[in-house]
């Protein structure tokens, strides 16, 4: 197996994503553009998406890291709009896009057109999360979009399986399709519910952070694999497990949490970068299968279907947002939506690598040795839809949000709430320390007891200090000044330790121990000020 193309993909996509952080273009769009350009460089190998790799190996960790970062409580509060988008919209888009393809493309059977509809129906989890993080959407809209992107792949994959079974003549019926959908959904959720408690128990009872984080890396693949083996939805199983583990993460050892956060940030960065680069690199593979003589007509079909995909989301989102308000129960339970929120939700429908992976899994041959109807055209239309939504909607979504002038987050109110929470926690810690020190078994010399109280006081005051004004001389905030002075002090200590090692007063093992202690102090200072 030649690993060089894989290494080049990972290294190149990571470099482009890092460069994007310093520029105005969002990383997903820059990665796709660079992938498109690089795909025609002589000597660059074909990176053909293998659904047997993308779906079971790339999708579970991306879903897992997104779900663990999501709020279970916020998702539960927004369950109705999330369900309307992740299930209702995906099925609606499957039918609308499929019918449009059937009408405009001569000779395409309705079953094959519905396959195309199911393939391009789900907005992509990676694209939605990446854009939401960058533009700073209001929390309610962000929760709805993240919830939709976590669950809609399960709907689309199930709809795709039913449509393919009908297209290849496997005797699929509407009733059978509904049964398969319900079994996949209920089965995926059920398997997630069965697995989540034992996996959490195992995480909390392992004593080594390294072993705990190894388990963390395996969890999404275990949940996905078990569910798929039982013909249930692996996507839903991963999401359920991840939401539960993220909600109970506070029960895990602090060292595990610190390592886990760093590990998953790195994994998500590498996978997201590679995924968007892969989208751009698919162009030669897709065009090779299409053939030059079909290019002009296929381009026309692509434009029409792109417009259908975009307009179908508006046609679903606005009624799904405002019609439920006719119910008094919904009005009493949920805050009023706005037309601006519906506009952003409608426009934030970028498609991504999941659609391409599903498209590449369309069988080349059906029963009787016949070719799958217009498979190459399905691949091309999926590719153009993905690229079109990523480029057009991805580039225009940030300015659209600025144009609509959403109210910004009240940083002062958030800091005040954080300070009040810290004050309550500090009072509880202070009381607990008094109780412990009153027991002679916990006797400490006065300097050490005072140090515990000093650290507690510093934590309590740090948040309140963030409400202060900036330094009139330097223009720095209190946070920045605190971090700068702390780092200067720690840097001075670090230089002494290194000099002592260089003069053989201490060895490298002791140096590493001392530097780790300083690293933890610096991290603590950064967190307290931030």
Descriptive terms for the model:
22 helices, 530 residues
Q: End-to-end distance, in Å? A: 46 Å
Number of helices: 22
Give the strand content: under 5%
Q: What order do the SSEs take from the amino end to the carboxyl end, as H and E?
A: HHHHHHHHHHHHHHHHHHHHHH
Radius of gyration: 27 Å
Overall geometry: globular
Biggest sheet: strands, sense, closure?
none
Q: Helical amount among residues, as a percent range?
A: over 70%
Could you explain how this protein is built, in words?
The two termini are 46 Å apart. The mean pLDDT is 83. Helices cover 77% and strands 0% of the residues. With 530 residues, the chain is mostly helical. It is globular and about 85 Å long. Helix 9 packs parallel to helix 11 (234-247). The chain contains 22 helices and no strands. The protein has helices spanning 4-20, 27-38, 51-68, 72-77, 79-104, 110-120, 125-135, 139-167, 174-205, 209-229, 234-247, 254-281, 283-290, 295-322, 328-333, 339-347, 353-360, 375-404, 411-437, 446-465, 478-502, 508-529.
């Amino acid at each position: 197996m030649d690993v060089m193309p894989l290494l080049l993909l990972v290294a190149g996509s990571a470099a482009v994503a890092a460069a994007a952080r310093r520029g105005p273009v969002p990383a997903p769009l820059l990665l796709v553009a660079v992938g498109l350009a690089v795909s025609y460089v002589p000597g660059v190998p074909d990176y053909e998406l293998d659904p047997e790799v993308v779906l079971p190996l790339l999708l579970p960790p991306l879903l897992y890291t997104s779900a663990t970062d999501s709020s279970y409580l916020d998702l539960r509060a927004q369950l109705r709009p999330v369900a309307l988008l992740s299930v209702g919209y995906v099925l609606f888009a499957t039918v609308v896009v499929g019918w449009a393809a059937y009408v405009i493309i001569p000779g395409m059977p309705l079953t094959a057109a519905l396959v195309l509809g199911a393939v391009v129906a789900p907005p992509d989890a990676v694209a939605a999360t990446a854009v939401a993080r960058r533009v700073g959407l209001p929390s309610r809209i962000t929760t709805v979009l993240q919830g939709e992107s976590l669950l809609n792949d399960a709907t689309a994959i199930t709809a795709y399986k039913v449509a393919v079974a009908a297209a290849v003549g496997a005797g699929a019926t509407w009733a059978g399709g509904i049964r398969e959908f319900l079994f996949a959904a209920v089965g995926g959720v059920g398997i997630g519910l069965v697995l989540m408690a034992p996996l959490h128990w195992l995480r909390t009872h392992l004593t080594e952070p390294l072993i705990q984080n190894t388990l963390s890396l395996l969890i999404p693949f275990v949940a996905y694999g078990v569910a798929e083996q039982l013909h249930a939805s692996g996507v839903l199983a991963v999401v359920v497990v991840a939401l539960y583990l993220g909600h109970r993460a506070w029960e895990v050892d602090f060292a595990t949490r610190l390592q886990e956060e760093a590990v998953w940030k790195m994994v998500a960065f590498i996978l997201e970068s590679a995924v968007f680069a892969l989208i751009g690199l698919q162009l030669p593979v897709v065009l090779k299968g299409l053939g030059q003589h079909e290019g002009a007509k296929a381009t026309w079909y692509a434009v029409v279907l792109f417009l259908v995909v975009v307009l179908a989301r508006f046609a679903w989102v606005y009624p799904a947002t405002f019609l439920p308000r006719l119910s008094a129960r919904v009005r009493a339970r949920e805050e009023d939506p706005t037309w601006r929120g519906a506009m952003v939700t409608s426009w934030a429908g970028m498609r991504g690598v999941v659609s391409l992976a599903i498209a590449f899994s369309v069988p080349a041959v059906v029963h009787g040795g016949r070719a799958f109807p217009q498979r190459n055209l399905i691949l091309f239309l999926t590719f153009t839809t993905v690229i079109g939504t990523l480029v057009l909607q991805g580039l225009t979504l940030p300015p659209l949000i600025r144009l609509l002038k959403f109210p910004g987050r009240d940083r002062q109110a958030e800091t005040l709430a954080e300070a009040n929470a810290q004050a309550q926690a500090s009072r509880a810690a202070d009381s607990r320390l008094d109780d412990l020190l009153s027991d002679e078994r916990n006797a400490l010399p006065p300097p050490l007891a005072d140090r515990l109280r000093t650290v507690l006081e510093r934590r309590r005051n740090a948040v309140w200090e963030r409400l202060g004004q900036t330094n009139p001389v330097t223009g720095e905030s209190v946070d920045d000044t605190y971090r700068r002075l702390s780092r200067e002090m720690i840097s001075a200590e670090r230089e002494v330790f290194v000099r002592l090692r260089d003069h053989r007063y201490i060895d490298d093992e002791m140096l590493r121990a001392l530097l780790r202690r300083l690293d933890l102090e610096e991290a603590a200072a950064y967190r307290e000020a931030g």
